[in-house]
Each structure stands twice: as structure tokens, then as C-alpha cells.
């Protein structure tokens, strides 16, 4: 008798995990959108919080960007002062101009750049939704894409009854049916746990991406201020590459999820299940992957720039040596001509 009760408990656990996985993957991309509620933590504004008893309180948030800008003003002064000293020692007019422009425009430029981040996030969110909706024939493309991924796992969402149905034609869910042998339901439970974990990681990584974007936007001031000092300008390039990588991670992850609909034509249910898990894990890894790609590209560009500077320096030294050689040869020719004139005069 207890065996039947245990199996019913296991079936209920499998259905619960499947339903939770469906909810996680369905909300993974919407929760990663940059909404005004998230953005107020960067630029400041009023935050409404609900306390016990249903009462709400309004808090004026200063905005972390404003706080960091004020805190980093001494750093800007130091950068400008060092740049002025270096330019004076080198006699560089361009360096002096860099210091002047940075002193005047660094703070306004910080707010302009952060505003562009807000606009870019809005545009990429629309791009993400378009990727999920393309080819859906007017239906809700995001739901269709989610249904395609769930179909890889042998899961179907019944919207009428708000239930998740297990397709017993899939081997893993057949093990959870009433006709399965004793103990086989454990395999189905393990599969359900892995599916739930994969969908949980996808949502967690989309939130991780959003939080990193908010942190980078809040700390835009040090990156922009670093442009005042020529040796420190690489900080701005690193900040920009990280921001671009995180912004583009959302649409690329949506494209990976969209591939799930094409993978539904794979031959066996086990292949479909494993492919679905890999698909979700790859989509979840996009923020980390894009950070690595942009760091690699930025490093390559930096090396290319350094190589170009060294090549230009070598070319300059070669030209100077050539000019010295020509000048020396011309001097020797003048000396010989003078000697010949003197001998002819005698």
C-alpha cells in the first residue's frame, strides 16, 4: 500500500517540477527586461514599497549613478591634473586639449552615455521579442517558442486547465505512468529535476545579466572620467565592451531558444530531451560567453593598436635615420667639392 502512496507522491513531485520549469522558462526573458522599476535604482526617483498590512510607503531613491558621480569627482580632478602635467612635460597640445575637454564634458557625457544604455536596452528587448515571435503567424511568438522548448522535454502546457501534461510517448515519462515497473519512476524524477534546474539557471542568468548592466551603468562615471588621462583610457574601452556584450546577450539567448522549435524534429525522445537541456544551458551561458568574447575582441584590438603604434614608431625612427644618412652624405659631398675647389685654385 505504501508503495502506491510513494509513487503518487513521486508523480506529484514530477508534475510540480515540470510546472515550475514551464513557469521559469516562460518568464526568463520578460524578467530580464530593463523596466523603470529597475532603472530608478540607477538614475534615482521614487520607489513605492508595500509593508505588512497592505500599506505602502514612498522612498526617494538618490540613484547610484548620482552618488558615484559625486564620489568620483576627485578622481576626475586627479586625472585632469596628471594629464596636464604630462602634456606640459611632453609639450603636447593634443594632451592639453584632452584634459580641457574632459574637465568640461566628462560629467554631462556620463549621463548621456547612461541614457544611451537605457535606449539600447529598450531596443534589444524589442529585438528579443521579435526573434521569439518571428514566423509565429500572428500568434504569441514567445509562448510558441517556450512551447517548442517544453516539447523537447515531452511537456505540454494546458492553458485551459493551467496544467502541465506529460507526454507518455517519451520514455522518461512512460516510466512515471501507472503501468511502469516499480522503481522506474525515480529516473523520471531525476529527469524532471535536471529540467527544472536548467530552466532555473536560465532565469537566474537573465537576472544576473540585468543586475550586471545596472551595476555597470551605475559605475559609468569612472570609465568616462578615465578618458581624461591617456594612460587610463583603456578602462573606458573595457567598460564599453562589457556593456555591449551583456546587452547583446539577451537577443542571442533568444535566438538559441528559438532553435528549440527546429530541434523538435529530432528522431528519438531521449535525443530531444538531452538537446533541450543543452539548449537551455547554452542560452543561460550567453551573458558569460558574451563577456568572454568582448574581452577577447577588446584584447585583440588593444594588441593591434599597440602593434600599430610600435610599427609607426619604428617607421618614424627609420625615416629619421634615413634623413640623417642623407644629410651626412650631402655634407661629405660638400666637403669633397670644397677640397677640389681649393686644389684647383692652387
From TrEMBL:
Keywords, comma-separated and alphabetical: Membrane, Transmembrane, Transmembrane helix
UniProt keyword Transmembrane, yes or no: yes
Ranges that cross the membrane: 64-87, 99-121, 183-203, 210-229, 241-261, 273-297
Superkingdom of the source species: Bacteria
Protein name, as recorded: Type IV secretion system protein
Organism of derivation: Micrococcus endophyticus
Amino acid at each position: 500500500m505504501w508503495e502506491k502512496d510513494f509513487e503518487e507522491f513521486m508523480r506529484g513531485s514530477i508534475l510540480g517540477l515540470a510546472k515550475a520549469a514551464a513557469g521559469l522558462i516562460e518568464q526568463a526573458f520578460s524578467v530580464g527586461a530593463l523596466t523603470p522599476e529597475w532603472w530608478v535604482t540607477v538614475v534615482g526617483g521614487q520607489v513605492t514599497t508595500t509593508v505588512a498590512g497592505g500599506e505602502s510607503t514612498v522612498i526617494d531613491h538618490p540613484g547610484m549613478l548620482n552618488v558615484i558621480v559625486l564620489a568620483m569627482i576627485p578622481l576626475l580632478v586627479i586625472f585632469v591634473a596628471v594629464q596636464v602635467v604630462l602634456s606640459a612635460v611632453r609639450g603636447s597640445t593634443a594632451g592639453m586639449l584632452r584634459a580641457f575637454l574632459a574637465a568640461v564634458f566628462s560629467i554631462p557625457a556620463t549621463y548621456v552615455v547612461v541614457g544611451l544604455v537605457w535606449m539600447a536596452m529598450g531596443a534589444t528587448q524589442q529585438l528579443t521579442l521579435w526573434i521569439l515571435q518571428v514566423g509565429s503567424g500572428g500568434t504569441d511568438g514567445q509562448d510558441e517558442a517556450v512551447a517548442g522548448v517544453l516539447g523537447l522535454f515531452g511537456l505540454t502546457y494546458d492553458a485551459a486547465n493551467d496544467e502541465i501534461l506529460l507526454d507518455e510517448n517519451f520514455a522518461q515519462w512512460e516510466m512515471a505512468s501507472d503501468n511502469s515497473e516499480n522503481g522506474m519512476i525515480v529516473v523520471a524524477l531525476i529527469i524532471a529535476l535536471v529540467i527544472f534546474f536548467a530552466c532555473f539557471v536560465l532565469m537566474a542568468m537573465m537576472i544576473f545579466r540585468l543586475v550586471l548592466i545596472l551595476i555597470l551603468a551605475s559605475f559609468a562615471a569612472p570609465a568616462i572620467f578615465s578618458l581624461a588621462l591617456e594612460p587610463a583610457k583603456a578602462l573606458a574601452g573595457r567598460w564599453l565592451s562589457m556593456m555591449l556584450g551583456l546587452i547583446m546577450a539577451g537577443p542571442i539567448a533568444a535566438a538559441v531558444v528559438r532553435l528549440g522549435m527546429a530541434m523538435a524534429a529530432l528522431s528519438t525522445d531521449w535525443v530531444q530531451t538531452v538537446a533541450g537541456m543543452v539548449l537551455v544551458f547554452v542560452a543561460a551561458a550567453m551573458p558569460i560567453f558574451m563577456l568572454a568574447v568582448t574581452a577577447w575582441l577588446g584584447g585583440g584590438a588593444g594588441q593591434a593598436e599597440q602593434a600599430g603604434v610600435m610599427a609607426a614608431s619604428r617607421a618614424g625612427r627609420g625615416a629619421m635615420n634615413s634623413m640623417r644618412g642623407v644629410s651626412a652624405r650631402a655634407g661629405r659631398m660638400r666637403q669633397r667639392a670644397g677640397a677640389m675647389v681649393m686644389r684647383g685654385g692652387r
